[in-house]
Fold this sequence. Notes:
FAD/NAD(P)-binding domain; single chain; 351 residues
Amino acid sequence: MSGDLRDGRIVIVGASLAGLRAAETLRDKGFTGSLTVVGDEPYPPYDRPPLSKQVLLGKARADTTELPTRRAPDADWRLGVRATGLDPLGKRVMLADGEPLPFDRLLITTGTRARPWANPEEAALDGVFTLRTRDDAGGLADRLDAGPERVLVIGAGFTGSEIASACRERGIEVTVAERGPAPLVGALGGTLGKLAAAMQRNHGVDLRCGVTVTALHGDGNGRFTGADLSDGSRVDADVCVVALGAVRNVEWLEDSGLAAGPRGIACDAGCRAFTMYGIVTDDVFVAGDVSRFPHPLFGYQMLALEHWGNAVEQAEVAAHNMVSPGPLRRPHLAVPVFWSSQFGLNIKSVG
Ligand SMILES: Cc1cc2nc3c(=O)[nH]c(=O)nc-3n(C[C@H](O)[C@H](O)[C@H](O)COP(=O)(O)OP(=O)(O)OC[C@H]3O[C@@H](n4cnc5c(N)ncnc54)[C@H](O)[C@@H]3O)c2cc1C
């Protein structure tokens, strides 16, 4: 990079919430060099929270959730192309179309994807969905429009619970199968979990806790027809949504030497990535759902947050630090915050 941090080449991999907000912040901070944003989805950055809420309720179409821009980031958008590797010595990102992309500073915002159903044949049945992308939401909304008899939701975390809520609001019968003792227990604990269970049942959800789904079944034409549960029961349904959490998009970094694994990419509080030896880099930064970072409020524990607000704030800190000299760099100290809307209730959590 040239002596001036406001010049040179910056590449961002991951063209979603964190990538967009970082690109805007870089320009706000006076970065005048070349800025390239690589994204494997074919669409400009869009917002995900509405996908499990307004889109499933039929109040918004999946292709209308584009993220508003705060300013034109004046970037070269490379959409629909996947980054396949990182050469940290040569300072290049490898792209699926074969072109190497040189950088002086790199920001990784590759987020997560939906954890797929473990059995690929069962996952491929017509009527079995996951929900992470705009295309997932559009496909699922179409199925709900078609008026299924019953929807089976596997997993009662936030996404699963919001899907169940949308189904009930549309008057569709829904069964939720959850391995834990109650919905949302992982995020909200036992007491609020019990409340969430009561809320779901009061809204007509057939909630089955303490069970796992052991097999998905299809008819002779490959259409999903129902599932077996570990308690020996069977649920007949025509749509199934697998809502079993997320997988970090880190495979492309396998040979990069970065501390990247199933729990995300480890970075310091200034968003600088660690190498696999725990040494901090100075030219590779990380932000958003794919990151793990130490938080002083929690005894410097490494946190991995899948929250909208974290992606925005961490992206802003990363962008600031990418163009600031050492003493002017800032830590990412924001208090974790998230929200969810389900069954007519807004749930907000801070801390
Ligand atoms: C249905 C749904 C509802 C949600 N609701 C809420 C909510 O109510 N409240 C809340 O706080 N949060 C919510 N979230 C979470 C929030 O949307 C995320 O925290 C946020 O999207 C994280 O942004 P990100 O940019 O870090 O990652 P992502 O949005 O995951 O974006 C990462 C991007 O990088 C791309 N990518 C991955 N690998 C590569 C590669 N190798 N090359 C190029 N591109 C790549 C991905 O395809 C993706 O476009 C919700 C998420 C979902 C899916």
